Amino acid sequence: MSDAEIARGPLHPPLPDGTGHGGFRPEEIDTGTPHPARMYDYYLGGRDNYEVDRIAADRVIEVHPQVRLSARANRAFLGRAVRTLVDGGIRQILDLGTGIPTSPHTHEVARASAPDTRVVYVDNDPIVATHAGARLTDADRTGFVLGDVRDIRAVLAHPTVRRLIDFDRPVAVLLLAVLHFVREDEDPAAVVTALADALPAGSHLVLSHATEEPYEEYPGGRVDVTARDGVVNVYKNATATLNLRSRARITELFGPFTLLEPGVVRVPLWRPDGEIPDAEELNNTIFYGGMGRKD
Known about the structure:
alpha/beta; 12 helices
């Protein structure tokens, strides 16, 4: 699957309301507060979101029109990273903060070349659970857990995780656009440390994270304080705040995982398989990303 196929966004219709698809009842889903997963779905052109999410997302787009560019670039990064993992022999993936299912999904990308890959998706939004139940899971090799990365030990102990993931064999963990919703006082580094403690040697961490920093190779780059504050303020009224971090701090979040080439870079620069964007576009792509390995 090409970057373009992965980045172009959802290819599915919205699910109907109700419980016919085995999900949550409508009254169990908070539709009165914007949720980052549903806002992200909207950035990608999806329809699995509510009016409150679209209003909040449109406010972000108003002050930072390039947010959709960043979402697509991050999605393409996921595809390249998963292909790299599978090509390197990884057959178990834990996708934390998966968000609204978007095709091609992580397991679809992985199984294009390794059909035996096992994938567990984790998210804290009940609507994601509803959609995951209909689109992502099968009885043998794919599962979904309603859980929160801020309680990573509970996630790792969940019966679905334990059924599908063998912690005696290398595991790849995806933390794509997740840790910037974890505040410093909630200790995002501790999430990575707990993962490293649970995983065997040969396991991998793939992480992407939003930044306020300008792209270091763009001469016209600067911190747009108005846009930054506008975006952050929108997320203050969502179910999770947005916590932008520097490239140096994002690099620190890899903790005990040894960074692989090319290190922490703007996501389009991570092992690109197509045309490389120019410096201005890289400046407007606000995600840094990288892959680390546990030795």
